[in-house]
Specification:
With 52 residues, this protein is mostly helical. Helix content is 65%, strand content 0%.
C-alpha cells in the first residue's frame, strides 16, 4: 500500500489542502474500489482467483 507521502506526490497540488487523515481515507477508498472493480474480470479470466 502507498504511504501518505507517496499519495501526496501522486495527487500533487490537489492534496495541499487535505489532512493526512483525508489523504489516507482517499487512498483506502480508492484501494477498495480497485479491489471491487477487478473482482469480476479476475473471475472471468482466472480459473481460481483468490479472495485476498
Amino acid at each position: 500500500m502507498l504511504t501518505t507521502e507517496q499519495c501526496r506526490q501522486i495527487l500533487g497540488e490537489k492534496a495541499k489542502h487535505l489532512t493526512d487523515t483525508e489523504v489516507e481515507e482517499l487512498r483506502d477508498l480508492l484501494s477498495a474500489f480497485a479491489d471491487v472493480a477487478l473482482q469480476q474480470p479476475l473471475k472471468e479470466y482466472l480459473p481460481n482467483p483468490t479472495n485476498d
